[in-house]
Amino acid sequence: MEIVSLSKSVPEMAINGDEPPPPPYVFNKQSIFGSIDVSPPYGPFPVIDISLFSPPSSSADVHNELEKLRSALISPGCFQVIGHGISSSFLDKVRELGKQFFELPMEEKKKYARPTNQVEGYGSNMIVSENQVLDWSDRLSLSVFPEDTRNLHYWPQNPSDFREMLNEYAKKVKSVEQTLYKAIAKSLNLEENSFLKMVGERAPVRARFNFYPRCSRPDLVLGVKPHSDTGGITILLQDKDVEGLQVRVDGNWFKVAIIPDALVINLGDQMQIMSNGIFKSPLHRVVTNPEKLRMSVAVVSEAEVDKEIGAVDELVNEERPRLYKNVKNFGAVVYESYQKEQIALDTITA
User: Fold this and answer.
1) What gap in Å lies between CA 82 and CA 42, rounded to an integer?
2) pLDDT at 338
3) pTM score, two decimals?
4) Which residue, of 44, 70, 79, 117, is most buried by count of CB atoms within 10 Å of its CB?
């Protein structure tokens, strides 16, 4: 049950320039995840051309790109991809329609409001604790796959071509996701469908439009507090102009550069489990900006809720014993840990 109520939404506070931000939004400087640094150095996040994973690429090119992929997945667990086949103009359209939705009057956006204690729809944090640190953001979260799970009630009809755009974008990104799952398996010398079989044919995929309004105190408030993702793979379309995403590598925060036509990829906890800890699900966060709105679109894939996931058998041996217990509905574990500033994977070690 949501037990805390706030008199103003994040967009309203951004417009009014409220200062200081209300206490529920102020990040704990003594957090185990470190204090806020709005501009750390750029991180070691390689750019990988996934077009090389399709014919007629030479075997040498494929081998080299798979080696680069494997290295990125071991650490830092985050990279950017090009060669994905999605045009620059279409990516710009996705960004533009997302911003157009956010700029609608609040009365219009509330038509798609997220019901209490549900994930899908428009809204901000689900508030479950008096001590919860809130994110300085608004979100529109929509189920896109399987198609028969789409709840079109939450799919905006304004802008008028939003639904058509999202349907097309979801299909394009799903193709990228399938390519990545197969390439990740190949990088470990596994059969290419090893991870796809485990997540299931009806693996849920959600698109989440993230809106980060300007914030007067970026030194105190985060757009999203530190967390790792629940699922297998997250595919992120960044804002074309405003930075904000940071990833933690070896105990330090690094910012992710903007490459306008690239997609940012990070692994989720389920991939760390399935790879028996060979690949890492990185902690990441989003800082706020004192002058500009930032928007991003994340497409997150997870295993089917009722499917038990665990390490692929070929990746468990005497030298590398099973690191994590098999688990179902890992999303529930992650959500509870997220609110407590705990690392979900630490709660299911074998």
Assistant:
1) 19
2) 63
3) 0.94
4) 79
Kindly indicate the confidence band of residue 207, based on its pLDDT and cuts at 50, 70 and 90: very high
Cα 117 off chain centre by: 20
**Which residue in the block uniquely carries the two structure tokens 């925060």?**
253
Sign of CA dihedral 112, 114, 120, 122: positive
- Whether residue 304 has pLDDT greater than 70: yes
How many CB atoms are located within 10 Å of the residue 335 CB? 15
Cβ proximity of 135 and 222 under 8 Å: yes
Report the alpha-carbon distance of residue 267 to residue 230 in Å, rounded: 9
- CB neighbourhood size of 157 (10 A): 12
- b/e per residue 201-233 (b: at least 16 CB within 10 A): eebbbbbbbbbbbbbbbbebbbbbbbbbbbbbb
Quick: pLDDT tens for 275-287: 999 999 999 999 9
Residue 108, φ and ψ in degrees, nearest 5: -70, -45
Q: pLDDT tier at 211 (50, 70, 90 boundaries)?
A: very high
- The pLDDT value given to residue 254: 97
Q: Show Cβ contacts of residue 282 under 8 Å, excluding neighbours closer than 6 positions.
A: 76, 77, 78, 228, 247, 248, 249, 266, 267
User: By the 8 A CB rule, do 305 and 191 touch?
Assistant: no
Name residue, tokens 């944090």.
Answer: 125
